[in-house]
Design a protein that fits this description.
This is Metallophosphoesterase domain-containing protein 1. It comes from Psilocybe cubensis (Psychedelic mushroom). It is built from 6 helices and 18 strands. The protein is α/β, with parallel strands linked by helices. α2 runs parallel beside α3.
Length: 324
């Protein structure tokens, strides 16, 4: 058999079936053919509401890849491998060039303490970063608007995650409650580590997310929670909060049938309690783009079971449309 050209092979990746989740106020594109990604819903005269497109990535580790356009780019950390200046420079230049009007990222650089922090901070917060719309959050709250007449979105970004194979911004679990208690209620919450029992399962089956963050979720209830860190747990899910169940957080992993095919949630279905347009929902996302685990290989034209590239099928940027 003739060798497969690398560029052609990547283009010929088997993207499989598209997976889209929908509710009255959220649309999530988890798996999709890049050339067939739908535009966000248009503003309608009846509803008089706009939609905002969020493009979610994480754990890019100094790699670059194609990312869909949108209003806001959200990055949940691990921009580099070992926090070298060259890795930061490469990633920063990539982020500067992406077309999104607003780009919000939180840090989780490794061994930054060994580097020239001022130089790194200039890449992330200096004039070039500001001109490119890049916003850096380290345990910080931020508000922004996409349109002059549009709604104000609030976001909080925290780089911390429970200790797991060491790394920057790790905390011991006995200190988690105090740290997580500082998180304010916002539209968007960015953490590097996932919530316990929500897209946090490693290859060996252990669920390593933060228990304290899970305990706070019923109070925080953001429109979108973006995490990463556990590469093999890449996934997304729309959760509807139920006051009769004390706003209990979901238990969901990426092998659950609910996240393996299209799913539509309607507030008007007979079996849905408290039917009204104001139901609260959270889009939970693990957007890790480093292919890892059982889903890290797919068929390519001419080659079976080939490892897919960063940001490839199964580990793409997760695209989320939220109704303003």
């Amino acid at each position: 058999m003739a060798p497969v050209n690398q560029e052609t092979a990547i283009e010929a990746l088997d993207y499989g079936s598209s997976v889209t989740f929908k509710s009255p106020t959220e649309i999530v594109y988890l798996d999709y053919f890049p050339s067939q990604l739908r535009a966000k819903p248009p503003r309608t005269a009846e509803e008089k509401a706009d939609w905002t497109r969020f493009v979610c990535i994480s754990d890019t580790h100094a790699r670059t890849f194609d990312v869909p356009d949108g209003d806001v780019l959200l990055h949940s950390g691990d921009l580099t491998n070992l926090g070298t200046e060259a890795d930061f420079q490469k990633t920063a230049e990539w982020l500067y060039c992406l077309p999104h009007k607003t780009k919000i990222r939180k840090p989780r650089p490794n061994v930054t303490r060994r580097l020239n922090r001022d130089k790194i901070m200039d890449m992330l917060k200096g004039k070039k970063a500001r001109d490119a719309g890049l916003v850096y959050l380290e345990d910080e709250y931020y508000e922004f608007k996409i349109r002059d007449s549009g709604r104000v979105w609030s976001v909080y970004g925290s780089p911390w995650s429970p200790w797991f194979h060491n790394g920057a911004f790790n905390y011991e679990r006995e200190h988690a409650k105090e740290l997580v208690a500082k998180f304010p209620k916002t539209d968007i919450l960015l953490t590097h580590g996932p919530v316990h029992q929500i897209f946090d399962q490693v290859i060996g089956g252990e669920q390593v997310g933060c228990e304290a963050l899970r305990a706070r979720m019923p109070e925080l209830r953001p429109r979108l929670h973006l995490a990463g860190h556990i590469h093999e747990a890449h996934g997304a899910y729309i959760h509807t909060w139920d006051p009769e169940n004390n706003y209990e957080a979901p238990t969901i992993q990426n092998d659950d049938p609910r996240v393996l095919s299209d799913l539509t949630t309607s507030d008007n279905l007979p079996d849905v309690k408290h039917s009204n347009p104001e139901r609260e929902r959270t889009v939970f996302i693990n957007a890790a783009n480093w292919p890892m685990g059982n889903r890290a290989k797919r068929n390519i034209t001419g080659t079976l079971n080939r490892k897919i590239p960063f940001g490839g099928p199964g580990f793409q940027a997760v695209v989320v449309d939220l109704k303003d």
